[in-house]
Structures are given as C-alpha cells and as structure tokens.
Amino acid sequence: MTCDAGTVVAAVRAAAAAAAEHKTELTRLDREIGDGDHGENLARGFTAVVAKLDASAPETPAAVLKLVATTLISTVGGASGPLYGTAFLRAATAIGDASELDGALVVTGLTAARDGVVARGKAEPGDKTMVDALTPAVQAAAAAADSGGDAAAVLSAAADAAAEGAEATTPLQARKGRASYLGERSIGHRDPGATSASLLLRAMADAAAGGGA
Amino acid sequence: MTCDAGTVVAAVRAAAAAAAEHKTELTRLDREIGDGDHGENLARGFTAVVAKLDASAPETPAAVLKLVATTLISTVGGASGPLYGTAFLRAATAIGDASELDGALVVTGLTAARDGVVARGKAEPGDKTMVDALTPAVQAAAAAADSGGDAAAVLSAAADAAAEGAEATTPLQARKGRASYLGERSIGHRDPGATSASLLLRAMADAAAGGGA
Amino acid sequence: MSVGIVLVSHSAQLAAGVLEVAQQMAPGVRIVAAGGMEDGGIGTSFDTITAAVQQADDGDGDGVVLLYDLGSGYLTTETAVEFLEPELGERVTIVDTPFVEGAVSAALTASFGADRKAVVSAALEARTANGPGGVRSVDEM
Amino acid sequence: MSVGIVLVSHSAQLAAGVLEVAQQMAPGVRIVAAGGMEDGGIGTSFDTITAAVQQADDGDGDGVVLLYDLGSGYLTTETAVEFLEPELGERVTIVDTPFVEGAVSAALTASFGADRKAVVSAALEARTANGPGGVRSVDEM
Ligand SMILES: Nc1ncnc2c1ncn2[C@@H]1O[C@H](COP(=O)(O)OP(=O)(O)O)[C@@H](O)[C@H]1O
Ligand SMILES: Nc1ncnc2c1ncn2[C@@H]1O[C@H](COP(=O)(O)OP(=O)(O)O)[C@@H](O)[C@H]1O
Ligand SMILES: [Mg+2]
Ligand SMILES: [Mg+2]
Ligand SMILES: [Mg+2]
Ligand SMILES: [Mg+2]
Fold this sequence. Notes:
A: mainly alpha; Serine Threonine Protein Phosphatase 5, Tetratricopeptide repeat; 9 helices; 0% strand; C: 141 residues; alpha/beta; Rossmann fold; 4 strands; 46% helix; binds adenosine-5'-diphosphate; binds magnesium ion
C-alpha cells in the first residue's frame, strides 16, 4: 500500500470531512473554555482547502501539505489557523520532494508538524493545547515506524495516541491560548484543539489505510 | 450696577459668543498638544447653552449657572465638558439663592468653580491646564473684592489674571490631560483650556460691566 | 444575575468592537458600549454613559464596573457616576486599566458570577495583549 | 517619513475605532487597521494583516510597529510577518502591550518622527487608561 500524493489528497479530504462532521462538537468544547468558534474555524478552513484541491492537482505529498498549510493560514481566523498552518508547512518542508511516504517519512513529517506548533505557540506538554495530542502522537508514530509500520500504520498509531492525549487534557489547567484566561476554571473541560488534532489524525489514518481513493 | 440673573444670562451669552468667535484658535492650540477639538467642543456646548437660555428664564444667578453646567456636561464631549460643567455647578451651589451678586459673591463663586475643576481633574497649578488660568483669577478676584470692587470689577480682575496665567502656560510641561502624553514636547505651546478659561472670563466680565443687556 | 460592564470610549466603533470581542468569550454578561458622542463624533457622552450604566445594572445589587479608554474619558465617566441615583451610584466602580484587556478579563470573571470586587480585580490584573510573543522590552527587538 | 502602525484586532470595529482615536492625536501618521476576518466575522486575517503592513510601510526604511488585541491574534500576526518579503519583514516589530493605550502612544511618538525603537518603547510604556482617577487597586473600592 503506497502513500503517494493521491493518498495524501484523500487523507486531507477525509480530514476536511471530519472537520465538517465534528464542527458542532468542537465549537461546543470551545464555548466552555474559549470563544466558541473552533469548529467553525476549522470547517471554514477545510472547506477552503477542498475547494483548492478541486481546482488543482499538487504533484507531491509535500505540495499537497503546502497547499493545505497556506489555505488554513489564510482562512481559519483563529489561533488554530497559524498553528495547523505552520504544522502542515513544516511537515511539507521536512518530507522534501519524496513522491511516496513510508512510515519513517510520516514520522519525520509529524515530528516537524508538532515542532512547528511548539515554535509558533510556545506551548509545552501539559499546557492543555493541541500539543498534548501531537506529542504523544509523534512518540507513538516513531514506535510504530521502528517496528516496521507503513505510512498508514504509523498514522493510525499516531491517531490513537492523539485521542488519548486529547482525552487527558480534561483535568489540566490551560496555560496557553484563550482557555488560559480561565485559570483554574479551565480544569474539567477537554481542549478543543487537542480534540480536533486527534480527529484529523484519525481521519487521515483511515483514509491512508483505505489506499487513497 | 447690579449683577442679577439677567446680567448673568447676558454674561453667559457673551461667553457663548466668545467661544464661537475663538473656536478656530482654540482648536488650533489643541491640535498642537491635544486632539484638535477644544474649540469645537466649547462652541458645541455653548450653542446648546444659548438654545436652553432662549427657551427658559432661570430666575436666580445660581439657576443660570446650573443650567450652563448641566448643558456643558451633556454636550461638550471632551475633558473640558465635565471640567467647566463642574466649575459652573460648584459656583451655582456656592452662591446659593442670592438674587444679586456683589464682588464677594463673585469671589465665592469663582473659588468654588476653581476648586471644582481641581476636584474633578486633580491638576495642580503648573500642570499646564485651565487651573493655571483659574487659580490666578481667583486670587486677583479676591484682591479686587477686598478693595471694594463690585461684581464686574472683580470679574474683570479675574479675567486679566487668567489671561496672564494662560500666557504663562506656554513654557510649562503638561502633567494632566491629553497634552501630558506629549511629555516634554508639550513645552512651548499655550494650553487650550487655560486660554478658553481666560477668554470666557473676559467676555463675562465685559458683559457684566455693560450692565447685563 | 451578574456584575454588568460598561465600556466608555471616545469612539462608538471602539466600544462596539471591544463589546463584540468580550461578549464572544462571556456570552451571558451584560456588557454595554458607551462610545462616542451622540452625534457619532469622537468624544464621550454623559447621557450615553448614564444610560449605559442603568442598562448594565441588573437590579439585583451586583453592580456595574466601568472601563474607559483614555484619561479624558474618566472625567465624563466620573461625572456621570456622581449624577446617578446614589443607590445605583454606590454599586458602581470605575477602573483604571487597559481598555481591551481589562474588558475581556472583567467580562469573563463576571460570567462566572463573581462579585464586583473580583471583577475589578480581574480587570486590574489584565496588563498586556498577552500573546505567546511580541516584544516586551526594546532589548528584544 | 515616519514609522507606520498596524492595529491587528479580532474585530473590524475595534481596529477602526482605535485607529480613529489614535489618528485624531497623530494626524500625519500611517496607521492601518487590520481587524476581523475577510467576511467581517470575529477573528484575525493573515491576508488583511499582510496588506496592512505593506500599506503602513512608507518605503523609506522606517518600518512598521504592529499591535494586537488578544494573545491569539499574535499567532496570525507573527505568521504574516514571517511570510513578508524578508527585506520588509526585518523592519517590522510586533509589540505585546495594551492595545488602545499602546496604539495612542505609538502613534503620537511616530508623529514626532521618532524611530522604530522609540515607537516600540513608547507603546510598551503605555500601561493603563491613565485618567485622573479610576481605582488602581481593589483597596480603593
Ligand atoms: N499558544 C498555543 N499553542 C498551542 N496550541 C494553542 C495555542 N493557543 C491556542 N491553541 C490551540 O488552539 C485551540 C483554539 O483554536 P481556535 O478556537 O480555532 O482559536 P481561537 O482561540 O483564536 O478562537 C485551543 O483549543 C488550543 O488547542
Ligand atoms: N485633569 C485635568 N484638569 C484640569 N484641566 C484639564 C484636565 N484635563 C484636561 N484639562 C483641560 O482641558 C483642555 C482640553 O479640553 P478638550 O480639548 O475640550 O478635551 P479633550 O482633551 O478631551 O479633547 C486642556 O487644554 C486642559 O486645559
Ligand atoms: Mg476559539
Ligand atoms: Mg476565535
Ligand atoms: Mg481636545
Ligand atoms: Mg477630545
């Protein structure tokens, strides 16, 4: 099973579908500890991404990710726009001009993505942000690649770990982003960005496993 | 020469005419060390005062001053609104229900007016505000009353001292109001509010001397 | 129900914009914009501020916190507060704090049902835009 | 001619209002509002910020100072600055300071022909609404 540009496009389209599907849920989470727009923000961004993909056919995985990056940066309108945008952009740069991604390259991309989010937002693990989904995702991805997993298997391991990481943000107190304005009142609510990160990874993993239709 | 409610009305109308006449000049001064609206602010306020006086006939000097106060507070729109408004209001309270003002009562009113401006704006002499016109005006008024001056003479002495006080604001550095944002750059410009205070006093003094037409 | 918030500004747009941003994070709070003069010009309006305080007060005694955008706005604000019915005036506090940042903090804190003192305290603690970056001293340039 | 100023806000009204107030005190300065999303909604826009910086830059090398209203606006602002032509990007500084107060100080200082460092410094020193009153600690309530 290969992970070429077409597969990456399919994975991004699946992510867009997930953003649309979970829009209300993500916004509801953001209403508890933010400004109640995370679902709308991501749905708006990924709708724009799909429109771009419909109009062009990027030839390499990196070109797909770069298109996603610039589109999200321009259209999301909230903190998650530059954060996810930087993530996709760093991933694109890290994987270079490879025409296909193996498990190791997925790890390379995911690591760069997480590092990009940290560079942009300065959040540390435990700050109750998307970093708390992405950091365990990167670790699980590396472990899966070490034991010979292909791109889809690595993404799937990452998605599972991200889901656990997102779940584990509930008892944390937010120290970055809008939720940090709430201080202790942010405790007891799951972070919207960590949740969306896990949902996007899950959708991309499933699409990659499906072979890139 | 008496200074009854009619004279006070005439004095206020003269002040309104002075505000209109010097509108451009006051705004020009405020453009140098403020936001360039002092002339418009005062002209707007006194136009409203005249409209109120056209529509009603307050029966005591205090009632006239009170009408001026509330109208300026509601219509001026800049710092000078609550400052002059408080000045007129305190003067009205201080002179009580006297039907005519003698020199001593004018001093009482002016002192209360200046104290009201200080209470409202917390400026001290030398801070480059209207207090620098009003404080010498109060002193000169008291001296004129001590030497037996009537209302018009006391007001005239106050106006002369206010003019000197306004002139003397030029070398000062502003420590209150918008001009204080300029720090040392406020030096070398005459304060708009001190200038308007002297012009208003001059107009009122001249009207009072004219006998309140 | 909760402490009300009045945003006194020299500009109607500025007050409305801060309201928009603060309300998004604290949807249930009574935030009232009192910006600009009655004719729409730049300046503060005694009558607009007075009406805004009356509207922001919930009648339950929680009171109102007023923020203003620039020093000269304080003078009109204080005057308006002094002219209120004493019974209302005494449950009103004017705060000297950064306008946007203080408004967001105050609104959020009010949304938790905090009392006026806690809302004032939150407003006072808001000091900067508070991003993960932006220079905080010229040495960082 | 002088340092330009960009006001990044989540609200178009808020940015326009701050511009209005700051411009009144500093009529000659290039102040550009970058508020709201392109559809008018609440949020920050990369494209709007990018265009605003280009517009605020006078081309003479004096550069541009950016202020933002809330932490999350910093992320979009920083990203936009990183994507500028390096030649423009290197004469741009993002400042973490109270939005309204910093903008007025920065605009005034720029109006005197001060350099970018002095404008940033003035923006950083602006800390409160700075009236002759308003409580500065809860003990004053
Ligand atoms: N500094 C940061 N570092 C990492 N993630 C952040 C940071 N700030 C915010 N986030 C993430 O972004 C999410 C909110 O995104 P969104 O609602 O789209 O933006 P906004 O807060 O601007 O409305 C948060 O739940 C959090 O996961
Ligand atoms: N705190 C203060 N105490 C005394 N006078 C003040 C104070 N603040 C401002 N002023 C006076 O008000 C004048 C400016 O009035 P105006 O332009 O109408 O108001 P604004 O500054 O709000 O635009 C100043 O020139 C000064 O004399
Ligand atoms: Mg949000
Ligand atoms: Mg948002
Ligand atoms: Mg003025
Ligand atoms: Mg003004």
